[in-house]
Amino acid sequence: MNKWRFFVGIVVLLFVVACDVVNPEEEIPAYLSINEFSFSTDFGQGSSSTKITEAWVYVGGEFLGAYSLPATVPVLASGDQEVWIYPGIKENGSFDTPNIYPFYKRYEQVVPLVAGETNTINPSTIYEENLTFSYLENFDNPHIFNVDLDSNAMTDIIITSADAFENASGIITLDAENYLLEIATGTAKPLVTNGTDVYLELNYKNDIDFQIGLIANHELVVVPPLVQSIYLFRPKEEWNKIYINLGPNLKELSDEGFVDFQLFIGALYQGESTVNIHVDNLKVVHFTL
Fold it and tell me: Which residues lie across from 136 on neighbouring strands?
């Protein structure tokens, strides 16, 4: 009988130990409650409009993930920890391409982490230093889209305060008679073509599809300019902001001998009613070389 009791005791003990191994006691995390980013600009940097959609979170140098804002992030570390939060965007407007925006500074804060407790963070950011704004257009008079490729003054960008995003915005009106839009910026500019990030920022809303792209001029004058569409904007009823990475396109064009560039906006309307395209706060930004 004693041997039997001893055997049962050993089995029970092994079962308890096995349970502890299979189902170990879980650690209780601390939590970071991260609100949406605030953003401000300095003189010469244009509008402070932004669309930061994610927080890329590092704690103690360890990457915890990218979280849609606002977010609650569990953290197993404890004590005073250095928290880095990088502002994230949807590159080229796609949910499939979330990315850290390289021209916004990361937010840093030392946070005292305690298991089970929540720390609230209100992150803020500004532009990085050493940036060049090759284009900076707030759509005040006169604006930079002054080349009328369609030879129809009725489809130019008009500056208006009506339904503007900030103060004044650009509006293009199309109808059954004025159905083609082709406009471009003036003097062609050299842009960064080494494959590094070059982003176009834009606020917009639109009743119909329109496109934005590049007119590329070749180093050999006998080669005609090349028009390359970069992005097609689908209709948006409310003002939206987008970040378009021109870097890969510029690198490809440079490899083919194209050396300077203009921006163009185009649309073709097939309808009877009057439709509008609104634009504001266009920027082309990259690190200064």
Answer: 283
What is the pTM for the complete model shown?
Answer: 0.89
| Concatenated DSSP letters of 181-217 | EEEE-SS-B----SSS--EEEEEEEESS-EEEEEEEE
- Residue 239, classified by CB atoms within 10 Å of its CB into exposed (0-12), middle (13-18) or buried (19+), is middle
Q: Please report the domains of the chain, with CATH numbers, ordered by start residue.
A: 30-125 (2.60.40), 131-287 (2.60.120.260)
pLDDT in tens, the chain (289 residues): 454 444 444 444 444 444 445 555 678 999 999 999 999 999 999 999 999 999 999 999 999 999 999 999 999 999 999 999 999 999 988 888 899 999 999 999 999 999 999 999 999 999 999 999 999 999 988 899 999 999 999 999 999 999 999 999 999 999 999 999 999 999 899 999 999 999 999 999 999 999 999 999 999 999 999 999 999 999 999 999 999 999 999 999 999 999 999 999 999 999 999 999 999 999 999 999 8
